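user:
I keep going back and forth on a fold encoding question. Separate attempts, laid side by side, tell us more than any discussion would. Would you put together a sequence-and-structure record for a protein of your own picking? Write it directly below this note and I will take it from there.

assistant:
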Amino acid sequence: MPVCQPNFPPPKTQYLLGIDLGTSGLRAVVVQRESTPCDLPVENKERILAQSQVALKATDQDPRAQWQSKLQSLLEALGTQVDLHQVDGLIADATSSSLWLSDLQGNPLTPVLMYHSQVATQQAQAIAEFIVQWQKKQPQPLSITTAALGVSSSLAKAWYLYQQLPAYSQNQPLQLVHQIDWLNDQFVGFLGTGENMSDENNLLKFGYDPALGDYPPWLRAFLAQEMPFLQLPKVGRVGQPFAQIAHQAAQRFGLKKTCQVCYGTTDSLAAFFAAGASQLGDAVSSLGSSIAIKLLASRPVFAPEFGLYSHRIGAYWLVGGASNSGGQVLLKYYDIAQVEYLDTLSIELINLNASLEQSLPQAAQAIRQSLQQLGDYYPLLSSGERFPFADPNLAPRLAAVPDCPLPQCMTQPDALKSVNAIQQMDAEQLTAVAAHLLFYSSIVQGFVQVELAAYQRLTELGCRRSQLFAVGGGTRNRYWQRLRQNYLHRPENPLKSPFSSDAAFGVTRLARLDSVLLSKPFKETSMKAPGTL
């Protein structure tokens, strides 16, 4: 059950603005809800009043100018649907470990390194070596668990950017700016004061320790040695209000002048709560380019040897990890139209009345049987897995890759996408389709095997799931959903349909406007004009 606080004041209606800054676009929602004595609002009690979104174009230029102009367009569009002057609070999410360095006036000194950047390989190796050597120097054995390891970590990227700066810039005070910090700054203007404010979730991959509630000693020692002029952001808990919107921003965006700005989170965590998770044991499987697993727990679990770490959310902990398996494997072999065709054919073969099975060619009968079983498969682009297995040498396990192409006539828009089409195939076409069905099904069955192994790993580490939601583009795959229903659904662990897939909605569920502001209101600053950085 959700953890509630005693002696909570009577509920009141709140209007919340949620903003999601993702890879492909900006999204926003306005939600009406009642304040709650629980750490999370009760599932399905929120009402979405308005939604808007704008696309972001891929560019080789500095993306911050595009973010700024699109943010303005996003809120203007939202304002045509609902009166933004009624918004009591604002909370946002953005991509994890997307960052840059700025001076104390908020002026960027480096390019943006996005979440998927792989340039900081040497820095990541050196950080891991530093931690090992630092541990050896301690008077007593000390175990360090941190999400700051790896090439995608914020710490490795920040150090990479620092080393690219000229010497005179390295020797002046610097600010670490995550994408979420920039977004919050558009409404508050704190970067111009030299006092960056960030949240525990986005700082996890920089090395912040949410269990300790502080930056750990090893990180402070590392920064003192390698980046002595980098100022550490002030850290707040997700959902807590930290400032009132700046007067200029309220005017610019048409928001209430008393609107509270809350500490936000990462896009993947916001998507978790969009699904409707609200109780201990609730879990969400996200099938996109990779498979991400998260579960709401009462205590943190850090198992870096399995790529597993925990974010603090109120009184809860969100334990999660991401596999190297996922939709990227499917898209290596098939385009979207081919996936849709194979998915449709798989489902129709499974649903075929048993009395009609004998009318199918023998090859199709064999495939029909294999579609309903779970083979020992593990789909990977290349060798190596991080979660739920820690094995850099784990090799992909799949059915044989077909040595013949999928017949083009079967994936055209006007093709008969049903099991009846099999009756019209010649022997060569039937052989090709059967081979591709077997290979396709081995990939999707492998996704379910990864999911089963992930929840088994969480159980071994003391986290048992209850309800299970699924989000991501993979939810459109009916064959994956059918297999999950067969192998993951239990009366005590039911599969649930997500309430929403919109991270902009999900992040609003974390806002706690009943909380007292944790920091004094910012003095009025001269915020940068629209279109400037």
Q: What stands out?
A: Residues 305 and 390 are 6 Å apart (CA to CA). The longest strand covers residues 25-34. The first helix runs from residue 63 to 79. The radius of gyration is 25 Å.
